[in-house]
């Protein structure tokens, strides 16, 4: 298993509207030692970012109601 730093890059936000994929991503990343947060919608994702900025955001490019690239631009603008 690769070394995972708990200092840098350890908090990952997953924005995925498919519940099965969201769970698989979260489970795999947790097993690798990462702290994950899951969001089913763009709104949930933005709320999670407002609470605490993650180190990494994994976004579904085809997220319902707000495409992933648009969501990422909002996150970067609000940082």
N- and C-termini, Cα separation: 32 Å
- Could you give the order of strands across the largest sheet? 2-1-3
Q: How big a fraction of the residues is strand? A: 15-25%
SSE series: EHEHEH
Outline type: globular
Question: How many distinct beta strands?
Answer: 3
Please describe the structure with a list of short key phrases separated by commas or semicolons.
79 residues, alpha/beta
General description of the model:
- The protein is α/β, with parallel strands linked by helices.
- The protein is 43% helix and 18% strand.
- It contains three helices and three strands; from the N terminus they run E-H-E-H-E-H.
- Strands 2-1-3 form a three-stranded parallel beta sheet, with helices on both faces.
- Helix 1 links the parallel strand 1 and strand 2.
- The relative contact order is 0.22.
